[in-house]
Structures are given as C-alpha cells and as structure tokens.
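Reviewers asked in the last cycle whether our approach scales beyond single polypeptides. To address this, we selected a multi-component target totalling 547 residues and predicted its structure end to end. The input consisted of the following lines:
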Amino acid sequence: MSVFEGLRFRKVYSPIHSLDPRIKFIYVIVIFVIAIIFWQVIPLLILFFMQLPFVLLARVQKQWLRSLRGAAFLATFIFLLNILATYISSGFVLLAFDFERAFALTLRFVVLVESFSVFFLTTSPDHLGLALEETRVPYEFAFAFTTAVRFVPVLAEEAQTIMDAQKARGLELEKGSLLKRIRNYVPVLIPLIVSAIRRSLELAEAMESRAWGATKKRTNLYSLRLHRGDFALIAIIIGIIIVAAYVYIYFFASIPAITQFLQL
Amino acid sequence: MAIIEIKNLTYTYPGATKPSINDVSLKVEKGEFVLITGPSGCGKTTLCRCFNGLVPHFYQGELKGEISVAGLETLKHHTHEMARHVGLVFQNPENQLFALSIEKDVAFGLENLGVSQAEMRQKVDWALHQTGIYDIRERSPHEISGGQQQRVAIASVLAMQPEVIVLDEPTSFLDPLSAEKIFEVIYELNRKQGITVILVEHRLDLTAKYTDHLIVMDEGKIFFEGDPRDILNSEQTRLIGVGIPKATLLYQMLKKDGLNLNKTTPLASEELADQLLEALKKW
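The resulting structure, written as structure tokens, was:
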C-alpha cells in the first residue's frame, strides 16, 4: 500500500542518522526559534540553505524534496494570503517590499517544515523511542510510540487483505459520489478495528507473560552515548546561537532587504 | 518434587456458563517434554494460560483447585513474577513481538525485570544463539519469515531463563519445514538445557517422537495421559479427533492385515521403516 509506504522506516546508516536524536532535536528547535525571531529574507534564506549539507550527508534528498513538495500548497496559500492582507490593509497599494515580506513569511514556514523533515527523515523510530525513554518520558508513552510504528505495516497488510476479501464478495470501493465512496469503506474499517482490538488483547497477554511492570526501575538494552559527531553538532548549534544573537543584538534593524539592493 | 502440580483445577471465564477446564489434575516432573493435544476448544489454551497466572490474573473469572508451578502458587503470584519461571509462547508470532528490532524484542522481558545492561547483553546473545537467529538480530520483525518470528518469540522467553517453557500451538501459522525447525529448537532446549517443555500441538506426526508424556484433552478434561505409544494406538483417541501420526496408522493397518511387526508402536516414519525392514528380512 503506497499510502503507508512513507511510514515504513528503513534502516539507513549515515553520519546524520547515527547522531543522537536529542541533540538533533535541540538543533531543530534552535533553527525553529531563530526562524521565528527573524522576519527578513536574508537570514531566512541562510537558514534554508544551512539544512542542505545535512540532507546531502544523510542521503535523503528524494524524500526531503517530496516533503517540500507536500508543503508547497500550504506555502502558496500563506504567500497569497499575506499579499491579500497587506493589499487590503494598506489601502489597495502594493509595494515591492510587501512581496518580499510575504515571501519571507512563506520562507519561514518552509524552513520549519524543512528542519522538522530532516529530523524525522534521519531519526529511526527505535532511536526516537530510546530518546523518549532516556529523557524520562514515562516508559508507557515511549512503548506506545514504538509499538505503533511497529504495527503500521502489519495493519496495512491486514487492511489490504480485508479489502481483497470484501472486493471478492462484490464490494465496490471506487464507485459513486464522494460520500458514497467514503461509506464504501465501512465494511473494510469495521473488521479492521475488530481485529486490531483482538490483536491488542493478544499483545497485552504477551506483554504480561514477559514480566511487564515487574519493576519500577526498568533497564534498557541500549543506551544513548554522545559520540564525536554529536559534539560536532553541539559546537555547530552553539555557533549558530552566538551568530544569531550577535546579529540580533547589533544589526537587527539594519539587515538589508533584497529590494534595497535592487533599488526598487 | 514435581515442577508443575495441578489438583482438581476448574476454571470458568467471566460470562461463560460452562467451565473451560473441568477438574483437571496433572503432575509434570522437572526436565520432562510434555505434549498436549486435543480438538479445538478442548481447553488446551486455557490450561496454558493457567501455567503463568494469566488465568486468573489477566482474565479474571472463577478458578477453583490448586496449581503450583516451580514451587509458586499462581493464584498468589502475579504474572510478572511467574514470568521468570515460566515462559509462554503464543500461537501468532506477529502479536508477541513489539520492538523494532529482534534483539530489542528478546531483551524486552529482561528490561522489564530491571537486569543490568552487561548481564542483559550476555543473556540476549545466549538466547539468540540457542534459537539460531543471532545473524538476523538487527532486523525488524516484519522483515523476517513467520518461522523466524516464532524463533524470536521463543528466544524472548528463553532470555529470562525460565525453568518451564509453555508453547501454545507455536507452529499453526507456519509451513511444515519451519515447523520442524521450531520443534528441533525446542527439543534441543529440553535436552541440552534441561528446560521443562510443555508443547500444545496438533501435528503429532512431527512431535510425538519427542515425548514420553502425552496428554489428550477433550471438553476441558484430561482424557488420556501417559505413554504416547499406548495412547495413539487406541481407537478412542482417534475418535476424539486427535491427529494420529501416519506411521502409527499404517502400523495399525498392517498389523490388522496380519503382518508380524515389532510390538512397540512406531510414532515416526523412521521407526516404522526400521520395523518394516526387519520384518522383510525375516521373510
């Protein structure tokens, strides 16, 4: 099933994939905050291009482009809405600078999507679950997360089987109006939900049999340890923060707009 | 002392009118390989759930009688306490693996018990080697075959080093070849590690040869218990709906037709082949 294809994580090894997810997450948050603080085009463009080495190092260009394409619709919407808002509020006059502003706000959105997608594309669910555990998130949540990821392909397969079975009995899924089509899926959804509930009971049984809840102090087969790459990323993060703070304090008002260069 | 002792056990699921297990008494000695068989709905699975306290702690319902496993009364000890002593392997391999890598799944029980990392690594590797899945330890459960998944399930209870392993129809989702491999793994564990095995199975063709303690259940009761050669040779066993091994059936037919075969009932084809060769030589 192509819909679920994107959720199926494949193990990839790259310098970015093996970074500690916690540090990567801090990096994403720092980029996020800086993108919110600055509204000028130039710093946002710099932020945008700063992600590229990560994408290339992790070799996830294809998936990354796909996620950007997914964001394109919303980005266009943001751009047009901004133009429209300034157009109305400024008494139906549009300056070149207004376009730049709208572009900057759109770019801000793109940077956010981009950095989060780099994080999720390069962090295995296993790693993420481990990070959740080590940051003292209650184990139940971390477990629920990894188990959900684990069962996505299983449920997808099951949905396919049920769909085939119902089609064999004459169910037509792709016929009729939109409402009718949605209703067509009811005979697929109900068995799927019932079997998922049954599955969850069996899972609970298996968990109990393997000493679930035996001690409060649960241990873990793996532990996250910081490696050289992680320290490098920490250095990069600190560098970014220093530069951003410096620019913000001394030059924030004097960041030139693109339109100034073009003398429009 | 017997490792499993059950006295007059009767259990009814909540909401059910008829008891699923009816006045069952059973003794299993340490290191035995016990095979339980019987038609569907005869109470085999319920009995398995009694061994580690899932019945009655997880399922509630009404339990009467006594049951102690590895010296612990399951009524007084919760399932997670029993887990150190009794490993339960279920029918569907898919629904007993939760982690995203095999190794992590095998470690799950030990993590719950709070075992230190170094000790855990050692036990996990040992269990992976015992079940022959060490080489695929970093794969994800949905990438491997059903037979391998079931071996992961066995390894994951084995890692906790229980005295007893209970397997509830572990091969019903598997093809015959993978099933045979699973049985070999189980038999090795029984023979080399001295782990008491309780195996619930329909495929007697492949498993009868491993045991000398067979239990036939029907309608929540133990119908026959003892030497598989006697039990499988009897007409009543066949009528209950037990899948008699083909070698045993052929032996019975040949015997009826007057062929003079050895007195011991064969359980596997190799045994029957030997007997036939012997008879042919005499001829």
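Residues 145-209 of chain A form one domain. We regard this as preliminary and will revisit it once experimental data from Aim 1 are available.
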